[in-house]
Amino acid sequence: MYLCVRNTGDQIYNTKYEVDSLYLLIYLLAKIYLQSSNQYLRLEGSLWPIVYPFMYTYLFFSFVFFCSDIEISRGQAPKPIHILAKEIGLLTEEIEIYGQTKAKVRLSLLERLKDQPDGKYVLVAGITPTPLGEGKSTVTIGLVQALTAHLKINSFACLRQPSQGPTFGVKGGAAGGGYSQVIPMEEFNLHLTGDIHAITAANNLLAAAIDARTLHENTQSDKALYNRLVPLVHGERKFSAIQLARMKRLGITKMDPKTLTADEINKFVRLDIDTSTITWQRVVDTNDRFLRKITIGQANTEKGFSRQTQFDIAVASEIMAILALTSSLSDMKERLGKIVIANNTKGQPVTAEDLGVTGALAVLMKDAIKPTLMQTLEGTPVFVHAGPFANIAHGNSSVLADKLALKLVGKEGFVVTEAGFGADIGMEKFFNIKCRASGLIPNVVVLVATVRALKMHGGGPNNKCIFVVGFLSFPIQNLKLVSDGCSNLLKQIQITQQFGVPVVLALNVFRTDSPAEINLVCEIAKQSGAFDAVPCRHWSEGGRGTMELAEAVRKAANQQNNFRYLYDLELPIVEKIRIIAQKIYGAQDIELSPAAQSQINCYTQQGFGNLPICMAKTHLSLSHMPEKKGVPTGFVLPISDVRASIGAGFIYPLVGTMTTMPGLPTRPCFYDIDLDPDTEQVKGLF
Amino acid sequence: MYLCVRNTGDQIYNTKYEVDSLYLLIYLLAKIYLQSSNQYLRLEGSLWPIVYPFMYTYLFFSFVFFCSDIEISRGQAPKPIHILAKEIGLLTEEIEIYGQTKAKVRLSLLERLKDQPDGKYVLVAGITPTPLGEGKSTVTIGLVQALTAHLKINSFACLRQPSQGPTFGVKGGAAGGGYSQVIPMEEFNLHLTGDIHAITAANNLLAAAIDARTLHENTQSDKALYNRLVPLVHGERKFSAIQLARMKRLGITKMDPKTLTADEINKFVRLDIDTSTITWQRVVDTNDRFLRKITIGQANTEKGFSRQTQFDIAVASEIMAILALTSSLSDMKERLGKIVIANNTKGQPVTAEDLGVTGALAVLMKDAIKPTLMQTLEGTPVFVHAGPFANIAHGNSSVLADKLALKLVGKEGFVVTEAGFGADIGMEKFFNIKCRASGLIPNVVVLVATVRALKMHGGGPNNKCIFVVGFLSFPIQNLKLVSDGCSNLLKQIQITQQFGVPVVLALNVFRTDSPAEINLVCEIAKQSGAFDAVPCRHWSEGGRGTMELAEAVRKAANQQNNFRYLYDLELPIVEKIRIIAQKIYGAQDIELSPAAQSQINCYTQQGFGNLPICMAKTHLSLSHMPEKKGVPTGFVLPISDVRASIGAGFIYPLVGTMTTMPGLPTRPCFYDIDLDPDTEQVKGLF
């Protein structure tokens, strides 16, 4: 149990506050004028010449004095990771250093600390997000900075590793921002310790094995297949361990390869994969839209066995979900073996184990299973482990990281983790899938909202450009828009309450929010049943700006906890989907496509009916229609297809059309990303 | 300059020799009987019952007492990598630790040691390989073990990082074997420090950028493209640095985006990629034969702009060649920008720089540029950097690793590096491409041969099964076969001599080779002009088994060196190809396909005519016909196509049909690969 982390946060404020005082003067002048009009302002027509000078002064100072995220990240030298590891009570033999700022933590730690009581478990979730994100990662980091570096309470942040696809595409990185970041942010946002690459390698080895096996079965006799699968080595044929396991599943109890009958050989050598049922896709960690639908196997060497398939973004791989949900190396290996890749021609599931690839997948993933230790800007510990994309995956960081962190912080400490997108998406999966897998019970939910997002939910414009949104469209107090938009906040609070966990609203404050707006949101939240509601200024102030939140979370964690899952696993798949659709999304009902219905029947008949549900749904609305903000009602949720991740352990229905591969825009982020070859510094990551 | 490396090699021999004495007794009994017949023996018919008992005794002891490569690797605890780093004179700030056994070495070291004289530079090459490999990696490691751990001369091995494709496919790993290995071999053979993953990520980001850009150009007006490429940010449009560079190339000198004419905007926004000329392929580090020819872009979102393309194995990426040939971070960035991905519709080259992705590629590769330090079984230092596949790539380790190592060993020290496949393939490229890029001059070539391979070149059977080959087919002395097969050895010695570097034959001895065979090969080699020829027993004895070779190499390194390139860069492309075909492969002439001729004309006209040549040719024969062993003559080399790697800096002609993506066999290596979840040990890697 660690007791202190040296607060290295103070030094970063010095230069910042000097700049701020000048900036604030200009800002206030602009604010006084603008607030006097007290109306929703679009800078058109006659107002333009008046606002112009203010805007430019603001912009000038913003750009001259304000630092970008990567500049802030670079401005703070991270402490050597072995020092941090020592501070939080890790033994030298429990870490594997990766450079100066990252270390993998061995799972043996769980065994050493098994008698240590767990700390408090806090989930950060959000309202339905706007295209800009509401700042869940920054709140998570701000909160642990406040707890550890300022209130001197042990805490740990558990974050997800970002995908390189969006980092080089549209979204940028996911290290937090401003004065609430994981540093060095370029390490966090790039290869990290290679976990996603390992997932890609494992995923694609399995994919290659499927098609190669199909080809070999299609072009060889039973005898030829058998002679190759059980080859003559030193005059003898022997089954490998994985082959004996398959024989057992087939009900063949013989140990000597010579004694198999022709029929048994046929059963043994032929997986008879029905290629039309293959659900295992290849993956890349790149936004490559041209791989959304492809035809493979068109070279002559593949003898005409071409088929249509697709690539997904790597983080959507079932192996990522397995990594997030597994509890140990042996559990991971077992899950990898259980992955169902297709049905055979008799409609029975074919697994990775049947392909003989379980051990190889486990070998490829043996290092990825260890969480990566990094630090916040204020020197507090962070685990980075497993992946994002809560819309098409479960989008939570790993069970193992949370478990290790809960032991490390000790009974009075706090572990803060984040669920992707809105509470309806990431949090629902956190409770029903991740908590079920881990057996852990969360103590508090922190729900993140911003005034500008609530305005959008209240009917404000949808503008993707951050700065223009931040200043030009929303600088003016508009209590009506805010109040209307709080419907979404209210709904997300209600969703959280269904799980019986106290909820604290963290209002991520921007400079453009007025005090009246901030008060209004906090009041509404409290009236809606939130345990507390506090404004947070972590982006501009780091941990100091989140101390009020930290106090509120500490109090909420001592509340009585009536945690419960939303549905019973034993219910039929359709029922479980309906419960989520109605109780979480507010749908009237669900509508299954014939394909979805037939898949559900198939999985139920195969014995997979009692798994939890991982919905693949847009994150931009409570409904399946991204443009419907606020709280849509009266809709029927269309389930277009249903897949199964048997290794990960869930059924995932696809709501409407969900792409599992993002694309690159006309001007991707990479236009601004550069490397200074002399200083080796990265530019343009955000 | 480092002076001592603690020899940790001794302890590994203890158990080994105890086992060996028992084994040798049995082996000698068998040998005495078998050699008495002195004929080429196939175990058929009447001999079978006589040989049977010997064979089984041999097999029994081999299996009971002999260790597999991974068991040997695991039997020796590697010293902590920071200790090794210190021993060889690296400063703490010059290394980045990756776990206990790997470290990346910073390029700043080159600057610190710039006044240090270089050591001797030794290349290990081979005869035309048989499917089993002749042991170049083991000789390389055995040689540095002998030099450093036994003769106390500073030395460094520079090896290539293996591809995971063959590791899980047919070939297994590439860490060496027996008592001449890089340890831990599972670290070496798996993700290492992520370099190949970084190459894959960079390669595929560029590929995704190409297709996305084509789609956006095909579906947007000039104005829409311009507005997106040079977006309005805070009321202003500004060109990014990479865009200004493109403007300059287009001859547009304006700085203000507002002032461009419609014609200039058209020129600026349209790369007008002729998709039929795209030579940039996607890559995966998996043997996935179904990706050899594919159709991409078939989803509705890609609006019908589908096209046929392929995936290559990741190590064949031009970015791997750039990594191997680059001299610094700024040189790498420049090379990445110069990559030509296609022609535009006017026949002009389109580059990565035109796509605005140079900086992002450099950022993805910023860690991969640092060589990885590991160690041999006897604790001597090894750099692992850049990749294999000398048939479809240049197949040499990196210039940077060699340069760093040459400084580290000091004037009297030795750096031993390996070129892939036969001397006609890897060594030719080493001299003409890699040495030209580095400016380094090799002192000695070590040519590796085995008796069993020479027998195959002499007309013996081609048998892929290692043990059956090793014992059943070649146990009997057959001087005629050996002598005939030496034609290939002679030819490879002659090839080496054309470059003016002294050559030492290293005969990798197997237990089944007779003294007469060994002597014969060494005699023929010396008569053919080799400086020396010595048998090596590094596989079974480690560095002790290669001390004679080490002495020979030391003497040869003091010989006069008349190093010269094979061809003048200023010659026309066709002439350079012809020189390689005739002087190296022994071809009568070359024959260009119309496609190849037209590509050569195009590259010459584009100004790329003065680059060196990187032939893509089978490694299994001096000719283009894999089945032709020995020294084929009188053949005409067919050049089916010609490509250009402008960033790497070479033209690569394709000889006949060369696949750039291996496949998985019916029973891939992965059937035997497993992970023990309790001990975390890897099984079945070799």
From TrEMBL, chains A, B:
Protein EC: 6.3.4.3
InterPro entries, A to Z: Formate_THF_ligase, Formate_THF_ligase_CS, P-loop_NTPase
Transmembrane segments: 46-66
Cellular component terms per the entry's GO annotation: cytoplasm
Pfam family, one: FTHFS
Xref: PROSITE patterns: FTHFS_1, FTHFS_2
CDD domains: FTHFS (cd00477)
Pathway: One-carbon metabolism; tetrahydrofolate interconversion
Enzyme class: ligase
Keyword Kinase carried by entry: no
Signal peptide, first to last residue: none
Subunit structure as annotated in this protein's UniProt entry: Homodimer.
Family the UniProt entry places it in: In the C-terminal section; belongs to the formate--tetrahydrofolate ligase family.
HAMAP family: FTHFS
Designated name of the protein: formate--tetrahydrofolate ligase
